[in-house]
Design brief:
This protein has one domain (about 1-120). It has four helices and four strands, in the order H-E-H-E-H-E-E-H. It has helices spanning about 15-25, 50-60, 90-105, 120-150; strands at about 35-40, 65-75, 110-115, 115-120.
Length: about 150
């Protein structure tokens, strides 16, 4: 809700923004059953991953708040602005950093780009459930067949 009132300004301080969201804008967080914070990003945070992971693990402890990350990978060479990020990492290193942060926060990670979905915890979970259902169905079919053969 507060995002709609924001304007583009300020710094690239990831921890500062995260602290503001968790410590200021979630003042009444303990009054809600479940909350999620979604980070939409195209690059790696400007602070070290272990520092952010430790912070979100502590900040999310004690109530049901998850930090979810949607990482959009832009094709290399498409940034014509010439702005060099404060901290650079390859797309894979960036994804790995956010996966670590998301795990510390009990959230979900989604990585996509112009070519499609590279990785998504939700899709992985759905595929896992489908595999379990398929295996269960095969076991049931085997049991039915074995019972038929006994009769």
């Amino acid at each position: 809700r507060w995002v709609l009132s924001l304007e583009c300004k300020g710094s690239r301080n990831f921890m500062g923004a995260l602290r503001r969201a968790l410590e200021v804008d979630f003042r009444d967080k303990d009054q809600h059953k479940s909350q999620g914070l979604y980070l939409l990003t195209t690059g790696i945070p400007d602070q070290e991953t272990h520092t952010i992971s430790a912070y979100v693990a502590e900040a999310c402890r004690g109530f049901d708040l998850q930090l979810h990350v949607c990482l959009f990978s832009v094709a290399e060479g498409t940034d014509s602005s010439g702005i060099i990020p404060a901290r650079y990492a390859s797309p894979t290193d960036t994804a790995n950093a956010f996966k670590e942060i998301v795990q510390a926060a009990g959230g979900r990670f989604h990585w996509f780009g112009e070519a499609g979905i590279f990785e998504s915890d939700d899709i992985t979970s759905i595929i896992s459930e489908m595999e379990k259902a398929k295996n269960y169905s095969q076991k049931c079919a085997f049991l039915v067949e074995s019972l038929k053969q006994r009769s």
